[in-house]
Design brief:
Layout (H helix, E strand, L loop, with lengths): L5 H12 L5 H5 L16 H10 L6 E5 L7 H6 L3 E6 L2 H14 L5 E5 L14 E7 L7 H10 L1 E10 L8 H6 L9 H11 L5 E8 L8 H11 L6 H14 E5 L17 E5 L4 E10 L3
Parallel strand pairs: 1-2, 1-4, 2-3, 4-5
Antiparallel strand pairs: 5-9, 6-9, 7-8
Helix pairs in contact: 1-8, 9-10
Length: 291
């Protein structure tokens, strides 16, 4: 059987996407990116990720791709010292703003850092645990996972989509006869690690998928079409158009809520939205750096 080069396959997939890769892109969404607890409820993904990390009291955490503090702030509230790294200066600014509000600014240390730069030229801290949650937007799979290992004393934990792209809606796929193709992000991570004898563990976290809101009907159709990254047949295109006519509904409300991380129309008072929600599945992957 011919061996699969997971790193080269990853690079090819990244070239075909070529979206959301710049710090300027993420700068533009930073202000509205930060998650806020709703009705006092804790985010089940954040809590489950923390449980699976098996952090010990006093552990330091290196959070790569921290954005505006989705994990950094709640984990600092649990008493950990967090070294929060991101390539978006605006994300880091919003992170520290939120940390001040939460009273944990003294426990969070922001670091301007790009996945694709040479980490070994930087004086980066060594932390007990290195994490990267839903932030694997690097160009070189092997080099980037090694970079995470380089800042971890004991363990690395990542959260990776189990689909080729985020936002893949299984309900829509089934309705239009689209058979899911391509590897989920977790496949790449797991296989690359096993190729290097890292013995990773994988546990799936399922949580309600936030229903996207779109500024127009056309925007919604376009976003759904783009989630099927390998393209649609003519029949599937027709089926998608029909599905959207039936299930992509117009809403007008007094307060449409926050703008989402993808930059859709979450903040608009008038928007289009699918009339159903899916469950999002995230693969939690952890491995020990030193046995």
């Amino acid at each position: 059987m011919e061996r699969i080069d997971w790193n080269e396959l990853w690079k090819a997939n990244r070239r075909s996407e070529n979206k959301n890769n710049t710090s300027q892109f993420w700068d533009s969404f930073a202000v509205n990116f930060r998650k806020k607890a709703r009705d006092g409820k804790k985010d089940p993904y954040i809590e489950k990720f923390y449980e699976l990390m098996e952090a010990e009291e006093g552990d330091t955490i290196f959070d790569m791709g921290c954005a505006s503090g989705t994990l950094a702030i709640p984990y600092a509230q649990k008493g950990h010292e967090i070294y929060a790294a991101d390539f978006s200066e605006e994300m880091l600014r919003v992170l520290m703003e939120g940390a001040e509000e939460a009273g944990v600014a003294d426990r969070i240390h922001p670091i301007l850092l790009d996945w694709n730069e040479d980490w070994f030229e930087r004086d980066l801290p060594q932390c007990d645990i290195a994490i990267a949650s839903r932030s694997l937007i690097f160009e070189d799979l092997t080099a980037s996972l090694k970079k995470l290992e380089s800042v971890a004393v004991r363990r690395v934990c990542v959260g990776a989509w189990d689909t080729p792209v985020s936002g893949f809606d299984r309900y829509v796929a089934k309705a239009i006869g689209y058979e899911r193709s391509g590897y989920g992000v977790n496949w790449f991570v797991m296989n690359e690690l096993m190729d290097r004898d890292r013995y990773p563990e994988q546990i799936f976290i399922r949580s309600p998928f936030r229903i996207a809101k779109f500024g127009s009907f056309e925007e919604g159709v376009r976003a759904l079409r783009e989630s099927f990254r390998y393209g649609l047949t003519d029949e599937q295109e027709k089926a998608l158009a029909e599905y959207c006519r039936e299930h992509l509904k117009f809403h007008s409300v007094e307060d449409g809520g926050e703008i989402s991380a993808r930059g859709d129309a979450q903040g608009k008072k008038e928007f289009w939205q699918l009339d159903h929600s899916d469950m999002s599945t995230m693969a939690f992957i952890r491995w020990e750096v030193k046995e």
